[in-house]
Amino acid sequence: MAIFKKKNLNGKKPSHHFRLVKKSDLEKRKNEKITKKVDKDVENNEKKEKEIRRLAATGKDISNKKINDLIDSAKQSHVQDIIVELFNGLMVYAAISESASDLHIEPWEEEAMIRIRVDGILYDRFRVNKTIYLRLISLLKILTKMRTDEHRAPQDGRFEFQTEGGGVDVRASVIPTSNGEKAVLRFLSGKSHKLTLKQLGFLGDDLRKVSKAIHKNWGMILATGPTGSGKTTTIYAILEEINKREVNITTIEDPVEFEIEGVNQSQVDRKAKMDFATGLRSLLRQDPDIIMVGEIRDEETAKIAVNAAMTGHKLLSTLHTNNAATTVLRLIDMGTESYLVASTLICAIAQRLVRKLCPDCKVKRTLTRTKAKRILKLEYVKLLFGNKEKIKVAVAGGCFDCGNTGYKGRLGVYEVLDNTPEIQELILKRVNSTKLQEAAIKLGMTTMAEDGIKKVASGDTTLEEFVRVMQE
Ligand SMILES: [Zn+2]
Question: How far is 53 from 74, CA to CA, in rounded Å?
Fold first, then answer.
């Protein structure tokens, strides 16, 4: 009996009901039909997404030649599968095979260029025709849930793909240009941040100073440098080192670049009106021991950050300044009282990134003082040569492993300003950054240039790299 009842309730109505449909029922059915179609479209898109993920998961390594073959096939056939395969191939090729940090799809007048950024340098890789370009962009939009019918406004989104080595998070943005929409995809792989301070390139005294600083109970540790100098990576390495169950670490970032287990990470959200200042204020209510603020770039954030450090928190952040001493002045310029800076700062780490020589193919060469003088500032020549007339330095070779560039990975060049009582006194006196820098050097600070020269002398990087980042 119960079974019959259920069947009736489920709508297996007697047939005469169909003959007596009301107008409103017709409307209802029409709506259902539209919804079904939309649902079908969504489902198809989801299938495409799944397909992309499945394909990406199979790729471990993809060669340049394979991508060119896929581009050739895409030229000949308009089957969607080929574009999906090409898109996947590009993801694996860039993020895995080439360890690129970004992939750019750049429209030109008649065709488009696909470029990748490896170790900070952008390389042209594949030319595609406009049809393939448009189909890649629309696939990217579907995948990141951007509006496919919007071509005039900037949009952003994200997606993830799986590889044998784990998931890769991709943050994509599309901006309109005169030749069409340009897409930039940034790969945020959860793996690459797991480097210790030593692996990042902190040596000797700098390593000791930073290790000591991060174990202090409260105060500020700041990493500074221009965009792309690796300061966030340094902060992440510090967080990894102090991340223990018994402490509460909370972050506000823009964006969250890597996820760290056990750390409460939140992200700036302009639409929800959550910037660094409001985010920081609300996370202070969460009883954190250690706070990480992605960047201090305005007065309000500076004020809250310094107050947080003052009230017993350990605060980590980054700033845009050229050297360690300027950091102090920058905070004062942003309206922080000098006595607060003097009492809360533990240390300021200034840094740059150089490309690291590939260990498999680097070559030793003799360099004479005369030749060095032509490319290096005199103070650097003195640092590198001492009294010698010639020295051995390493130069880039080229092998399969480094994609014939001679470089693999990057290395930090640092200077660490320790806020000793002598430095505190100078901060209170509000001396200028040149004086502060000089005093720090007298007190034993190794400058970024000295650290960089050490890394040239040890054969970890080249003179060209040093010149590129230090003399620009
Ligand atoms: Zn090599």
Answer: 19
Q: In this predicted structure, what is the pLDDT of residue 295? A: 95
Residue 56: both structure tokens together: 């990406």
For residue 396, the CA-to-ligand 1 centroid distance in Å is 8
Q: How far apart are the first and last CA of the chain?
A: 86
Q: Across residues 146-169, what is the average pLDDT? A: 84
What is the per-residue pLDDT across 9-31, written as a single tens digit (0 to 9) for each? Answer: 344 443 334 444 455 666 667 66
pLDDT tens digits for range 425-439:
999 999 999 999 999
Share of the chain above pLDDT 70, in %: 86
C-alpha 410 – ligand 1 centre gap (Å): 14
The arithmetic mean of pLDDT across residues 67-77, rounded, is 93
Rounded distance from Cα 409 to ligand 1 centre (Å): 11
Query: Smallest Cα–Cα separation from 84: which of 130, 124, 45, 43?
Result: 45
Contact 401, 343 (CB under 8 A): no
Tokens of 254: 């823009």
Query: What residues flank ion ligand 1 with Cβ within 5 A?
Result: 358, 360-361, 399, 401-402
**Ligand 1 centre from 408 Cα, in Å?**
7
Residue 240 to residue 195: CA distance in whole angstroms: 9
Q: pLDDT at residue 38 above 80?
A: no
Q: Looking at the DSSP assignment, which residues form a beta bridge with residue 118?
A: 121
Residue type (1 letter), 457: A
pLDDT recorded at residue 3: 37
3-class SS at 443? coil
More confidently predicted of 40 and 71:
71
- Residue 448 contacts residue 352 (beta carbons within 8 Å): yes
- Kindly give the distance from the C-alpha atom of residue 461 to the centroid of ligand 1, in angstroms, as a whole number: 13
Are 409 and 398 in contact by the 8 Å Cβ rule? The answer is no
**Distance in angstroms (rounded) separating the CA atoms of residues 447 and 322:** 12
Beta pairing, strands 264-267 & 249-253: parallel
pTM of the model: 0.71
DSSP string computed for 373-422: HHHS-HHHHHHHHTT-SEEEEEE----GGGTTSSEEEEEEEEEEEE--HH
Closest residue by Cα to residue 169 from 205, 193, 198? 193
pLDDT value of position 31: 61
Q: How many residues does the chain have?
A: 472
What does R_g of the chain's alpha carbons equal in angstroms?
28
Ligand 1 centroid distance, CA of 118 (Å): 14
* 3-state SS assignment for residue 314: strand
How high is the pLDDT of residue 306?
95
